[in-house]
Write a structure and sequence with these properties.
41% of the residues lie in helices and 17% in strands. The chain contains 24 helices and 25 strands. The structure holds zinc ion.
């Protein structure tokens, strides 16, 4: 059989859409693999090759063997096989056997889990399947894995030899293999009593997979208290930091930026140099697991960034060292805020980082939010004028100096905030700096907004993140951003959000329908067209809702553009109709039912933003709702009767 590159390319294009066209273009080797499968199966039609499922369990018996490498890190390979075996067992209560590749494996269905170096059979099968022709028709008989796979990319390839079926989960590195395993794990499901995976070679599970963003980050906290939640990490993981890291890896998250490492609540480890500045409520002080997260994280491709604030949001430390506090315009002390002009503040800053890097030498990067609100700064002769930006640059330089003298591989990062103005202007002097932009929701990105940072922290809206994550990941991919970040302190409880983050940060071109299909499989462990459809209607409804709010927020009610209000209502009706056709009972379905009851946007649009001023002078905006029938409802559902005052809201949401 002879296919030219272009013939095959156009066949793919027609059958699988533009995503494939792009993938084909980048990864010529795959053409070879698929071509070989076609050649092998003789006259079999194209669709049968890509549509075939791989069966793990049939008639309550295992039909496949998980084969692991014996030459690479066996401990990892056992762990990887275990992930699949446990998932299959959770779906069917059947145990799939695991074998070592150096033993003779007789099973007619084998899942090969490892790098080509670890499992010679992977090398052999790939070499045979990759006997492809390049664009000018030369046979390439020895192409194995495309170099573009890099450290994180992976291949999921189903192939056959005689009556033996093979499912290859491989990559250049153990991390690539792990990501292949975690992808397959999400797609295991029941069909006609069998545990299967299907969709091989389609956009739902391409043969070749590389991330759209090299860094997929989560801004979070691993103790408490913190800005967003209290003690959530301990409730979900306790001291099981390996469980936490493995859970992050299961969503292919490869960076965490920790906001409980700053001065707001005190030092989060048992500092010997500053015992009086330690936050004794942080569980890491009692038993240091942060070091474990960093170390074990390295094994699972996870890097850890520490976060800080300067000069505000340093409440705990300023309280303990009142002589370092900034001042208000009238000369009174400004709680929670340092004066950047006091040499002792700079000394404390340097000594703190010096000790922290001694304590955690393996941390990937240290960084800071150098002034989120200009009105929160000290109002002395230096901090109160433009010299403030020079002082922030000096504090940044001091942090970089400590990192470089202490441990040169340690990098540094900043958030793009007003106080960091001069640092950003001098950005080219710091080649290792990761500049993380943030602030905007998804609507500006749909309208073509471009970010200037290296990464983007996307603040999704409350419990309805999917539509926005899809929009922002699509936009950021076009801008070739190196990293995307989201912020949350709930973990397994918000699995839906992490699944969507995982799928779209690898493949932003997946449609909302594709993602809903994949999530239905993961959460129900079976396909269900109506659940998928209901989820799509929910995501669209929430997306249109957000757009309507974003587009009309600043207009008078009589000027509202009602286009998205109309679309939102249509989706809500469709959601309710679809839910009537679903008979299964399940947590996810229950949750969808609860979402069908969200009120019309125009109702919720009667919201107000109330500014509250915190004790340190910083400002927080709280959104309250003024329902038609009167009253005023706060973010947690509490009713204030009349419009809530700044003081009332500060008691609940400020400090
Ligand atoms: Zn000052």
């Amino acid at each position: 059989m002879i296919y030219s590159f272009l013939q095959l390319h156009s066949t793919f294009n027609r059958l699988l859409g533009p995503y494939w066209s792009y993938a084909m273009y980048r990864f010529g080797a795959i053409i070879g693999m698929v071509l070989a499968s076609i050649a092998y199966s003789g006259a079999c039609a194209f669709g049968e090759v890509i549509g075939t499922s791989f069966v793990f369990v049939q008639d309550s018996k295992p039909t496949a063997t998980l084969v692991i490498g014996s030459k690479t890190d066996l401990q990892d390979d056992v762990h990887f096989a275990d992930i699949i075996a446990k998932t299959v067992a959770s779906i069917s209560a059947v145990e799939v056997p695991v074998a070592d590749s150096k033993d003779k494996v007789h099973s007619s269905r084998q899942v090969l889990i490892g790098t080509p170096e670890g499992i010679p059979l992977v090398k052999k099968l790939l070499a045979e399947d990759a006997a492809y022709q390049d664009e000018v028709g030369n046979a390439q008989s020895n192409a194995l894995l495309p170099a573009e796979l890099g450290e994180q990319g992976f291949i999921i390839h189903r192939t056959q030899q005689g009556d033996r079926q093979y499912l290859i989960l491989t990559g250049h590195t153990p991390l690539g293999v792990l990501y292949a395993v975690n992808t397959l794990q999400d797609r295991l499901h029941l069909e006609a009593g069998e545990v299967i995976v299907d969709g091989f070679g389609t956009r739902l599970m391409p043969i070749v997979n590389t991330p759209a963003f090299t860094n997929r980050s989560l801004q979070t906290a691993v103790g408490g208290p913190d800005f967003l939640g209290s003690g959530q990490y301990m409730r979900e993981f306790g001291y099981d930091y390996q469980g936490f890291v493995d859970w992050l890896a299961s969503h292919k998250i490869n960076n965490i930026l920790l906001h409980d490492t700053g001065f707001t609540w005190g030092i989060c480890y048992d500092s010997k140099r500053f015992p009086e500045l330690v936050n004794r409520d942080h569980p890491n002080v009692e038993k240091d697991y942060l070091g474990g997260i960093i170390k074990y994280g390295r094994k699972r491709g996870l890097t850890v960034f520490f976060a800080h604030n300067m000069p505000d949001r340093c409440d705990f430390i300023v309280k303990a060292r009142p002589e370092l506090a900034g001042i208000n315009k009238d000369g009174s002390p400004k709680p929670g805020t340092f004066c950047l002009n006091k040499p002792e503040v700079l000394e404390l800053w340097k000594a703190y980082w010096d000790e922290t890097l001694t304590h955690y030498p393996d941390v990937e990067a240290i960084g800071c939010q150098f002034g989120e609100h200009l009105n929160a700064r000290c109002q002395c002769d230096v901090c109160g004028c433009d010299k403030y930006f020079e002082r922030q640059l000096a504090f940044f330089d001091a942090m970089v100096d400590v990192a470089q003298s202490k441990n040169p591989p340690v990098k540094y990062w900043i958030w793009r905030v007003p106080g960091a103005k001069q640092i950003i202007e001098n950005k080219r002097d710091y080649p290792d700096l990761v500049d993380i932009d943030w602030r905007l929701k998804f609507r500006p990105f749909m309208l073509g907004h471009e970010t200037e940072g290296d990464w983007y922290l996307y603040h999704h809206h409350g419990n309805n993140p999917e539509f926005g994550i899809k929009q922002v990941s699509m936009a950021l991919q076009k801008q070739h951003l190196k990293g995307m970040q989201i912020r949350a302190v709930q973990f397994k409880e918000k699995d839906r959000m992490y699944q969507c983050y995982e799928e779209f940060t690898w493949n932003p071109k997946l449609s909302i329908e594709d993602y809903a299909h994949l999530y239905t499989i993961k959460t129900l462990r079976r396909k269900n067209k109506n659940v998928t459809k209901a989820y799509v209607h929910y995501m669209r409804a929430r997306g249109y809702y957000e757009i309507f709010r974003a587009d009309n927020r600043r207009r008078r009610q009589q000027d509202w553009d009602l286009t998205y209000d109309k679309k939102f209502k249509e989706e809500l009706v469709a959601l309710k109709e679809t839910l009537k056709r679903i008979s299964i009972e399940n947590d996810f379905v229950d949750w969808l039912r609860s979402q069908a009851e969200i009120p019309a946007i125009a109702h919720e649009m009667r919201t107000h933003l109330v500014n509250i001023v915190n004790s340190d002078g910083s400002c927080t905006q709280i959104e309250v709702i003024r329902p038609e029938g009167g009253g005023c409802i706060g973010p947690m559902g509490e009713n204030y009767g009349g419009l809530a005052s700044s003081e009332q809201l500060r008691e609940v949401y400020g400090y």
